[in-house]
Amino acid sequence: MLIDGEDAGESFDLLKIPALGRLLKWRHARTAFQIPVLLLSLIMIAHGLLGSRLAPENLATNLTWIHFRGVLVLILLLAGNFFCMACPFVLVRDWARKLHQPRWNWPRKLRTKWLSVILFATILFSYEAFNLWASPWWTAWLIVGYFVAILAIDLTFKHATFCKFVCPIGQFNFVASTLSPLQVKVRKQAVCDSCATKDCIRGRRPDPKALVTFQRGCELALFQPLKVGNLDCTFCLDCVQACPHDNVGIQTRMPGEELLEDPRRSGIGRLSRRHDIGALATIFVFGALINALGMVSPLYEVERWLSRLLHLQNRPAILSIVFVLVLVIEPLLLLAAATGLSKTWGGLQQRWLFVMTRYSYGLVPMGFGMWLAHYGFHLLTGLYTAIPVAQNTVKSIIGYPLFGEPLWTLVGLPPHIVQPIEYGFLVLGLGGSLVLLQQLAESDAPRRWIRLFAPWAALSLILFATSWWLLSQPMDMRATFLE
């Protein structure tokens, strides 16, 4: 327990910055961030369904597959899960719940990440198999599908069921945000220990004279005094609003430290026993590889070879084989090999699945480095492409080039300038994984940590070399005129 007046690590607190803190603690701050994103989403849907069929000329494909993904990973790296905070799907759900309140609790057997793991892999597969990046129409319907899904689920089931157990984007954000420098955390543990109401989880009823009758607590079942890190945290700041003691902040921490700790954490339990979260982390890591593999020519050679070998002409069927190999068989073989060697050399007595799950989290920085390198490449090389698309959209609507003729030659930074940044992200990811794996090994086997560390370090280097090779290949410039 911390002594009175002692901060949790005395870290920097974003909510203590005068102007920014007042903005973020404002009751309607989240709505203020959500409304612009909602309007942009509606514009993308309309343009995807009614606008140009050519992907580089459509806001739905251009903004979704170039700008959204690149900005997303950069914000996750630099700040935290602020994209979930500004989620437009939750805003529409909240409006709908004013008309209809859900009655049921999510089935206990489904309170895991397994469903979202399957959906995450399905999104990766569908993106490549059905060329979502090239279809404004399908991209628009994907956005519509998200609105329909959250309404169907969260108007039936209580709390933030869709966010916690279903949303593939949210799961990606949760895993990536374990490496963010900010987290929502209590300021003084002693204040929480003396709190009798626990409003951060239960919600709070303010002064009866106030216009607001109820402030909800955390819908994702994260009890602040026992919460660890960013997993399952959407940065909604409901806990900040509900806490009567102003004892919750957005504080700095060492990125990745929550992947080293294994206490029983609120809403999650022990990470080493959450095999579903371990599987999510594994799909996160190897999904980065296959998402980039789909954009380089060697995949097309593999597809042709499989087509001749199996006498298949259906591309989704062929791709399903590749995805099973890369997302299921390859991770199982590599993780099993690293686990077996580390148990043998390091003398670990824990069960195989325990070791595999615990050390899979150490690979997350390497996976995130690849996501950053890949999405960062598309963002930076297509940085200005939204400008001519917006110009052309306005022109097509009003029949006059109000903002000038579309500058289709306006793209982004040259690839030869972006490539060193890509490799820098990979090196950063490799370094992060080696540090995490070393600290895990030292805590499990202080005297034999090198033997325990070596197989996992070798696996990290394999992932690093594969990522480097993928990025060195000519990559499709999707959703731009540079394809």
Biggest sheet statistics? 2 strands, antiparallel
Number of helices: 20
Q: pLDDT below 50 for ≥5 consecutive residues: which ranges?
A: 1-9
What is the straight-line distance between the termini? 58 Å
Class by alpha and beta content: mainly alpha
- Give the helix level as a range of percent: 55-70%
What is the overall pLDDT average?
A: 92
Strand proportion, as a percent range, falls in: under 5%
Oligomer: single chain
Cα shape:
globular
The radius of gyration computed from the alpha-carbon positions, rounded to a whole number of angstroms, is: 23 Å
Q: Output the helix-strand order.
A: HHHHHHHHHEHHHEHHHHHHHH
Query: Major sheet: order of its strands?
Result: 1-2
| Number of β-strand runs | 2
List keywords for this structure.
mainly alpha, 483 residues, 20 helices, disordered N terminus, two-stranded antiparallel ribbon
Q: Would you mind describing this structure in some detail?
A:
With 483 residues, the chain is an all-alpha fold. Helices cover 60% and strands 2% of the residues. The protein contains 20 helices and two strands. It has helices at residues 18-25, 29-50, 59-78, 82-85, 88-97, 114-129, 136-154, 161-166, 168-176, 189-194, 199-202, 238-242, 275-293, 297-310, 315-346, 352-360, 364-381, 386-398, 415-444, 449-472; strands at 182-186, 248-252. The protein has a two-stranded antiparallel sheet. Helix 3 (59-78) packs antiparallel against helix 18. It is globular, with a radius of gyration of 23 Å. It starts with 17 loop residues before the first helix and ends in an 11-residue tail after the last helix.
